[in-house]
Amino acid sequence: MIEESVLAAASLLAFIAYFTFLIVLHIFPTGKNPLYNTISDYSVGKFSVLARSSTAINGIGILLLLAVLVQVVGMPPLTRTGLVWLAILALSRLAMVFVLTDLSGQKVTPQGIAHMILAALSFVAGVSAITTLTRNLSTFNALHGIYRVLMILAEISTPLLVIVFVTVLLPKLRRWLGLTERAFLLTINAWLLILVGWTFLYTIRVVH
């Protein structure tokens, strides 16, 4: 079995790389509008490799977090439901690396439809995973004050998801889709990053 600290460190590095890649994508001249274009739109164009790599790294980081949570926290307090949702989130993210979106104004393709389904699945899985795991971790006292932050992020994830779906469905609001999606993804991944950081510190005995 791989050492808990190694898994936690690898997961933490993956999340740091993911956020770094996203920042770089928003600095480079991609021609995308952060208010309107979704993160998936960056996977189509000259910076496709960087964008798809960030998605792949994100999925891998989530899988590593899943593995370290099972070892560090265990079942109970974790439940199969929360872990399954986390696995679905990771796998849907990895699948999106190979199933690209259709850009706005382009012909709708079967691949684009499949991407939309995967994106919706990953969004629902993200909310379901962090809300379920937050409830599971309520009895895990080693989290201390971090749990309060996790709880707040979990609580706002559902309304943010609703807002994303509303901006997708209502044409007049679609120009804000990029902004609402980024707020949602930041919430989900901030929750994951905080827990990843805590698991790393816990495995190297910095926190108890």
UniProtKB/TrEMBL annotation:
Transmembrane segments annotated in the record for this chain: 6-28, 49-70, 82-101, 113-134, 146-171, 183-204
Entry keyword annotation includes Transmembrane: yes
Coiled coil: none
Assigned keywords, A-Z: Membrane, Transmembrane, Transmembrane helix
UniProt cross-references to InterPro entries, sorted A to Z: DUF998
UniProt superkingdom: Bacteria
Protein name stated in the entry: DUF998 domain-containing protein
